[in-house]
Amino acid sequence: MTRDRFDLTGKVALVAGASRGIGSEIAVALGEYGAHVIALSRGEGGCDETLDRIRAVGGEGEAKVCHIGKMEQIEGIYQYIDKTHGKLDILVNNAASNPYYGHILDTDLGSFKKTLEVNLQGYFFMSVYAGRRMREAKAGAILNVASINGVSPGDKQGVYSMTKAGIINMTKAFARECGSLGIRVNSLIPGLTRTRFAQALHDDDDFMAMQIPNTPLARGGEPSEMACCGIVFTFRCCELYHGRIYSS
Ligand SMILES: NC(=O)c1ccc[n+]([C@@H]2O[C@H](COP(=O)([O-])OP(=O)(O)OC[C@H]3O[C@@H](n4cnc5c(N)ncnc54)[C@H](OP(=O)(O)O)[C@@H]3O)[C@@H](O)[C@H]2O)c1
């Protein structure tokens, strides 16, 4: 294996949900390996800290506002990419929503819709728009950050877990149909990771008492550990992995 397989110089990478947590770590790692990173979050200036960190490791990037639950904002970002960069090599779908933590029978329609809009509609159309551009280039890599809850649902996280199962299935569907077009599609499936997103779980003593003893390392993961696993799928050396994990 040659070192250039780990070189992302000249690649344009779009990372949704890059202001903090796992997405920020993935964005910094992509920048460190040479990609130009377009870091997305919902608020103006949200990704400034991530950009500072990218530059500190010798990388380059830019921050853009994009709420992936809003179709017009997704379309706007791809118009910007077409105009400014003319291509997209890497998409990381990482921004997710989990507005409700409670018993499944008490789920309200608003939380249900919001979770689906971001986690399913958002991931799906971010992938469709990226995939159309990658199809023209006959190359590209898409990474969908799912969750262990997509394999087995987490208590009090029914709707979120359903959407994460959907993301794993979506990954398989895109992988099967886009592999022959030169587009690799993979999923990262994190367990409990220390981020703001998982704060409600970390604050739930009963959950932690039950969860941690069942964790091989007897601790939750760190966002930087997820980034290491995640960006591996963007490298060319992962051609072998594509399709075998999800398309058999
Ligand atoms: N932490 C865990 O234990 C864990 C476990 C399994 C899976 N995951 C998955 O890992 C991914 C990242 O989670 P995290 O723990 O790193 O969360 P986090 O620290 O809360 O970060 C979430 C990121 O997503 C952005 N975001 C949220 N909603 C968005 C939207 N609608 N449009 C665009 N950006 C949005 C946030 O930015 P702004 O708020 O600035 O917009 C932030 O940058 C998620 O897909 C999550 O499901 C996490």
Overall description:
With 248 residues, this protein is of the alpha/beta class. The protein has helices spanning 21-32, 48-56, 71-84, 109-137, 158-178, 199-202, 205-211, 223-232; strands at residues 12-16, 36-41, 60-65, 90-93, 140-145, 183-188. The two termini are 25 Å apart. NADP nicotinamide-adenine-dinucleotide phosphate (NAP) binds at residues 16-23, 40-43, 46, 66-69, 94-97, 118, 145, 147, 190, 192-193, 195-198, 223.
Topology:
Layout: E1 12-16, H1 21-32, E2 36-41, H2 48-56, E3 60-65, H3 71-84, E4 90-93, H4 109-137, E5 140-145, H5 158-178, E6 183-188, H6 199-202, H7 205-211, H8 223-232
Parallel strand pairs: 1-2, 1-4, 2-3, 4-5, 5-6
The structure holds NADP nicotinamide-adenine-dinucleotide phosphate (NAP).
- Give the termini distance in whole angstroms: 25 Å
Using the CA coordinates, give the radius of gyration.
17 Å
Low-confidence stretches: 242-248
What would the average pLDDT be, to the nearest integer?
92
Summarize the structure in short:
The chain has 248 residues and is an alpha/beta fold.
What are the key terms here?
disordered C terminus, 248 residues, 8 helices, Rossmann fold, six-stranded parallel sheet, globular, 6 strands
